Structures are given as structure tokens and as C-alpha cells.
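QUALITY CONTROL LOG
STEP: pairwise intake check
CHECKER ROLE: data steward
CRITERIA: each record must contain a sequence immediately followed by its C-alpha cells, with no blank fields

ENTRY 1 OF 2
RESULT FIELD BELOW
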Amino acid sequence: MISPNDIPSHLLMGRTDTHIYLRPHPALRGLIAHYTLIFPGSPGQAGESLTLIPDASGCLIFILRPDRVEGLIWGATTQAAVVHNDFATCPPRVFVEFLPGTLSLFAHLPQEELSDRRLPLSAVSAALTPEVARIAEESSSTGAFIAGLDALLLKIIEGRERPAAVLHGLKRLRETDGMLSISALAQETGYSARHLSRLFGEYVGMSAKTFARVLRVNLILSRMREGADSLTLTAQEAGFYDQSHFIRDFSRICGAAPTDYLQNLSDFYNETFKF
């Protein structure tokens, strides 16, 4: 059974009072940002809510109950989601946190069908949760469990690919911090902007324009965590030269205005290792 006390040092990416972040297998590191482990007894008052900042990614969640394992799938997120903060009382949970545009390799269906949805994993795969339950039962340590999970996920994606235009689009939007125009991106791929957006919807779960918007807001939040002094200047550096446009996009993505976000940071959770 997994434990917070036997985390292999070579897998550890980071640790907070509530979360342990672990590296996946090297062959998965361009697809999976990290595994996140949460154990009962983590600090935090049960009953509080937590707003999850959208990261244009999806995840798998495995809840390790004493008598069974429950599997959930969250599609790529484009808008803030409010969840119950149960860190103090929850059973052990394992999150497989995908990088943007990679969930399609593991859940082989049009990603717009999953976008901003939370479903039982059985709705997508009948076999995956029982396989993870078997790995958890047979593993004598956290390291063994992660190795088994790595092997299972590598097997799932064997032979699966994504269109070159989608891969190029994801790469170029990240290289340009989401500021490359979609028309210019479409020209680079050889597709029309409409066709490119259809491909993004199928493989990423949102249009290229929406992905760029989520990317830019998350990059602003990342720079703020690093100590940026001026929210206005940071927004301008991210291409938001119109203050009302920035506030509108920020509020749409985060579910709160920038000033409300800054005043209530403990009420929000945004990914550290994806942007």
C-alpha cells in the first residue's frame, strides 16, 4: 500500500502540506506533468471549498478506499471548478495529471465530450480502475505502485498518436506564451483556422483560441507566484494591453476578478508544474 513515508527521492518533484508530486517514467514526461498523492490527515479544515484554476488539462483520479478503488476522469478544464476541501478526512488519492492535449492518448474519444466534465472512469474505460486496484494490492511500497502505474499507462498509449498540426499548435502556443495569433498558427500548420480549431476540440478539448487564453492567464499566475510586483505590468507582458479585456478573460478563467484572487489566495488551487 502507498504511504507518505516511503516516497522514493528520485521521483519526488515537490511537496506541500497537502500534496506530494512525483515524476512519471521518463517516457511519459512529455505527456504527464506528475502524479499527485494526497493522504488522510493532511492539514486543512474539512468543509471549506477550494476553487481549481483551469489548466487546459485533464486528469485521472484513483481513490484508494480500504475495500475498493474508485476511478474518476476529469476532462480538460477551461473554467474554474469549486470542489470540497476534504484534505483532512479523505482516503488516499492518486491523481494522474496530464499535460495539455495529452488526455486524448489515454481516453480515446473526442475530447470536447469530456471538457469541463467529471465522470466515473468506467464511462471511458471498464478495465483501467480494476487494473489500478490490482497494482495497489500487489505493491509493497509507493515506489512499486508508481512503477506499476507507469507500466500500465505506457501500455495504454502504445501505438497511439496525435495529429502533427495539434502537436505543432500546442508547442507554438506555449513557446509564444499564448500570444501567437490563431490565424498565424493556422498558416504554419497548413490548415484553416476553423479546421485547426476542430482538431483542437477533438484532441485537446477546446479551441486553439481558448487554449491560448487559459495558457496566458496561467502564465500570469505563475509570474505572480514568482514575485511579480505589478499585476497590470504582468498582464501587459502577457499581451493584455486592454485592462478591461484582461479582467474579463481573467474572471472567465478563474471565476473571480484579479483583485479577489489576490485577496483570497488560499481559496484557490492552481498547478505549479504545468506552466
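ENTRY 2 OF 2
RESULT FIELD BELOW
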Amino acid sequence: MLRTAVGGLFYWSFLALSATLGICFMTVPQLPLLLISPRLFRNTVDAFVSYYLMFVVATMELLYGIKFVISGDKIESIPGADNLIVMNHRTRLDWMFFWCCLYRHSFKSIYNLKISLKSTLRHLLGLGWATQFSAFIFMERSFDKDKHILRNMLHYYRRVRKDINLLFFVEGTDKTQTTTQRSHAFADKNNLPRYDYVLHPRVTGFSHTMQLMSQGNLDSLYDVTVAYKHTIPQSELAILKGQFPQEVHFHVKRHKKEQLPVEDEALQDYCKELWKEKEEQLREFYTGDKRTLYSWGDQHSVECSQLRRFWLVLCIIFWISATVLSVYLILTNSLVFYYVLASCLGMAIVSRYGLDTILAKL
């Protein structure tokens, strides 16, 4: 029943509702910390958001039965160090499924997660507000604008001494029929091979991001490949129709900073080579006999331990209970109702400017 249009509607509705109420009751009261202790604000908000991401992981794995196959290197969050994570962008939802990959590696990895997203996503009710509180990086898809946004946010993380795992989509957009045709046109114009399973990467943005992070505490570059077995949910609408994936595969390859080039042109060539390998890996996955990504390269597969599943169960119990209790208080207590209304109106107004932008300027 959950893998139907009714189940899809319930999925998005409950995620939006729980995120909105979580912000109102657990995050908005922390805003005074922005002036008192910006670093404490960052740590407490990121802890709250991490537990919410675990709840999303729990719903996907335990309630909707999505199987995740994780292989390759472990994403390590070393104190005082940052990581850059690049991944092919097969669907609009890759970043959400990736939370399941990070959770298997460590809670610290998901706690330090920051994502570069399209700027329009900051306005989504509840979920968009949560990403703003998390200080995700919202891009305008213009390098002249985005290089300043990226620099300001990286400076903000350093000011509050926040270690990050930055998920950066080098392709700039998800793979659709339209974007594939654009990628083919780019390849033909620049005498490059056409790719069927990835889009040609935007190497200028990759090189700039690598150089900025290398000026700080960059430890490693993680190259992640994502693939879907059977159903491929292209967008939020697919989930709304109940088209949940049966299996999502991730393969992780670690590149230590010492192994990476430094110069701009060399970094761009390095990125092109990563995507060439990714195209071959995905071609083998989708057309070959072996239907797992870890049959290509490292054979290590990461399973979800019983302890981690236990914590996922606790997350489901907590968030469902907290959401039901919050709704009850809103319906029965006028003070709570007006508080939530004021909080939502305030966030709607702040979203026009971007809480992430405000944070970067503090």
C-alpha cells in the first residue's frame, strides 16, 4: 500500500509536516544563539537536522522497503578536516538517497553533511527551511555568482570551526532527456565523446571548488557513483505517484588530497577522467551481467548493522510521536497555534533573502 500514489502523498506530506513543526519547536527557539554563540548555534542545529535526516533514512529503508547497496571506501569525517564529495546526478532525489549511504558510514559523516542545491529549493515548505538552517549552499547556476556564494559559505564554516562533507554535483543538473541532449551538443561542439549514463561535468566549477577547499582543511575527495535498479524516480513527482526505487546502489572511491593535482587545468582534466570512468562503470551496471556497482573495482560492501537499524526505529518512534503531539497542541492551544503561525510567517519572509545568506554575513 505504501508504494502507491496514496503512499507517495503520505510520504511527502508527512516529511514536510514533520520538518516544519520540527523547525518551529526545536530550531526557531535556538535563533538567539546566533548572537550569543554562532558556533554553538551551528552545532546544535546540525545535530537536530542530523536526527531528522536519520528519520528520512528510516522511512525509506524500514517503511518503504528501499534496498541500499553501498560499496567501496568509507567516508571518514576526521576532526579538523573537510571532504569534498562529487557524484553523478541521475535524478533530482540523489542527494536524499545519499543520506542512507552516509548513515552507514558514520553518524559524524551525516552530521557534517552540507549540500550544494539550486537556489529555488530554499523556498520549499519545511524541507527548504531546514536546508537553510543547515547552511546548505544554494547555487544560482551562474559561475560569476556562484563563486562568491561558495567562497562566502566556506568562510562561514571556517569562522564557526565547522568540519564539512560538501556534496557537490559537478554536472550542475540531473540527467533527463533534455539535459542529455544538451550534453551531447556540448560534446559534439568540443570534440568529446557522447555519454549515455552521465552528463559531461562542469569542470570549471569543480576546479574552483577544489582550490577553495584546498586553501582550508581539505582531507579527501570522494568520488561517488549512484545507480538505480529497476525503477528510477526522476523527480519528487515520481515519488508522489508511488514510484519508489527497489534498489539504490552507491560506490565510493576515495582520493587523498596528496594524490590530487593542484593547477586549474590539471584539476579539470582529473574531473573529466573521473566522469569517463563513471560512464564506463554505469554502462557495465545497466547493460552487463553483473548488476552491482561493486563488481567494478573494490568489492567491499557496507551493510546496515543491527545497532544502526535500532536507532532508525527509535527515530521513527520519536518523529511520529513528536509530530502527532505538536499537531494536538496546535489544535487545542491557541498560544501554540499563534506561535507556530508566527514562526512559519517569519521563515517565509526570511526565505526571500535566505537564512543561509544571513548566516554567511554574521
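INTAKE CHECK: passed for both entries
DESCRIPTIVE NOTE, ENTRY 2: Strands lie at 67-72, 82-87, 113-118, 137-139, 165-168, 218-229, 247-256, 301-302.
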